Amino acid sequence: MSSYTPHLSVSEYLGLGIVYLQSSGGYVKPATTQLDLLWNIQEALPPSSSICLLSYSLAPGAQYPYQLHQAVLLLKYLVDDQGKEPKKIILCGDSAGGNLILGLLSHLLHPHPSVPPLGLLEPLLGAALISPWGVFSTSAPSFSRNEEHDSVNGAILRKWSTYFTGGAPADNYNQPFLAPRSWWSQLNGVVQELLITAGTDEVLLDGIAEFAKTIEVCTRILGGGK
Description:
Layout: H1 10-13, E1 17-21, H2 34-44, E2 50-54, H3 66-81, E3 89-94, H4 96-109, E4 124-130, H5 141-145, H6 154-165, E5 191-198, H7 205-215, E6 220-225
Helix pairs in contact: 3-4
């Protein structure tokens, strides 16, 4: 993965909309630490730009694909009702939020049979995946290698994934890292650029790195670490 160099001009930032899909612990715990981050991002943007936060319903009270349905409805509202141009929208999310972004991109490519379809007339500007939780297996070596360094571990993530899926089988929407490269072959048609970050001491590292290799030929990948 290469380093990231912003390429937009100042004028292109005008009217930019960032849709932040909240990070909650595995779709289970409420987001409590992201508001300061979003405030700092908003402060760095021109006044005409804005941030929209999707505070999706939490599991196990709401289970897959309910959160995907909510994300689709929000994006549809922004584009169809508010007249926002997809080329001015960036999706952003970390951990479970990154999972939801990939589920949403998958839905744009291959509509989920239980979620209303959403067609965009042009690709989204970008998507930022911060430590995305894209597969629920905890067998990757980074789980044992980084267990003492990360704030989560395999046991916690297995519990959260069970609450989220409610027994639903794995598919390319709820575990997008499992999707084959062919699944993402038309990704450039729904998003212009993709930023993927992962920390060297986190348990999800190996799965994220493998996923980046899988789709690097499908879109412009802007890699980074934290």
